[in-house]
Amino acid sequence: MNNHDIDFKLVGDDMQFVEVELDPQETVIAEAGSLMMMEDGIRMETIFGDGSGSQGGIMGKLFSAGKRLITGESLFMTAFTNEGRDKKHVAFAAPYPGKIVPMDLSEQGGKIICQKDAFLAAAKGVSVGVEFQRKLGTGFFGGEGFIMQKLEGDGLAFIHAGGTIQKRELAPGETLKVDTGCLVAMSRTIDYDIEFVKGIKTALFGGEGLFFATLRGPGSVWVQSLPFSRLASRVFAAMPAAGGSKDEGSMAKGLFNLFNGD
């Protein structure tokens, strides 16, 4: 086994955080900004790349970091190492309402493919890279479904998704069509592609996106009910126009009318 063997506990329901238990000299890596709290005796260190040691020298690290930039992630990650003599705990929080899913990569054939913003934390030794869809058309038109992360290794990794998460097991040849934003992760055996929604009226007036992911088994698929992009668009649409709220019955409306002579 090349990865550190960490223990963990999930806390909460819809606003979860994961508490990782570190034995002496054990290390967990995480995306910058995901730390919630840690006990005394844990050393926090910014590292270049993912700290897996699989990049193969400085050029390999630069190439790996460049691929992380493509997914919109930082060049750096943070490593948390227990330098004490006793077990220590460090916790990482989910960035928005949803669920944290632990993934034992040794049970998934050593690799999981997930959305580019799904990764939260992992045992040291897990490699965080980029998975490119082989079909060129997907690259130009697939949107969220094109550039995905791949987590490789034999240790634990934690991914996060919005709303409720469901795991689906697909039999050989079984096909599932998913909105590209609702796809969280899939096992390495899944064959996937991005397809255009047929029918111009459906595309323009159906209220859905122009593309969906077609997933073909065998393998496991994880889907989410509330992608962050969908949540953000609803929040943005509900924001009041510039100049303050003028909702009926509000105090702000009365003050607005007073100063404008209404």
Question: Any overview of this molecule?
Answer:
- Helix content is 18%, strand content 42%.
- The strands form 4 sheets. Strands 5-6-3-10-13-8 form a 6-stranded antiparallel sheet, with no helix packed on it. It has a 6-stranded antiparallel sheet with strand order 11-12-9-16-19-14.
- The chain has 5 helices and 19 strands.
- A hairpin with a 5-residue loop joins strand 1 and strand 2.
- It is of the alpha+beta class.
- The protein has helices spanning 57-70, 136-141, 200-205, 228-238, 251-259; strands spanning 7-11, 17-22, 27-30, 35-38, 42-48, 76-82, 88-93, 98-104, 111-115, 119-123, 127-132, 147-152, 156-162, 165-170, 175-179, 183-187, 191-196, 211-216, 219-224.
- The model is unreliable at 136-145 and 242-246 (pLDDT under 50).
- The protein has a single domain (7-239), classed as Double-stranded beta-helix, CATH 3.60.160.
- The protein starts with 6 loop residues before the first strand and ends with a helix.
- It comes from Heyndrickxia coagulans 36D1.
- It holds the Pfam family AIM24.
List keywords for this structure.
262 residues, alpha+beta, Double-stranded beta-helix, six-stranded antiparallel sheet, 18% helix, 42% strand, globular, Trp_RNA-bd_attenuator-like_dom, AIM24_sf, TIGR00266 family protein
Question: What's the layout of helices and strands?
Answer:
Elements: E1 7-11, E2 17-22, E3 27-30, E4 35-38, E5 42-48, H1 57-70, E6 76-82, E7 88-93, E8 98-104, E9 111-115, E10 119-123, E11 127-132, H2 136-141, E12 147-152, E13 156-162, E14 165-170, E15 175-179, E16 183-187, E17 191-196, H3 200-205, E18 211-216, E19 219-224, H4 228-238, H5 251-259
Antiparallel strand pairs: 1-2, 2-7, 3-6, 3-10, 4-7, 5-6, 8-13, 9-12, 9-16, 10-13, 11-12, 14-19, 15-18, 16-19, 17-18
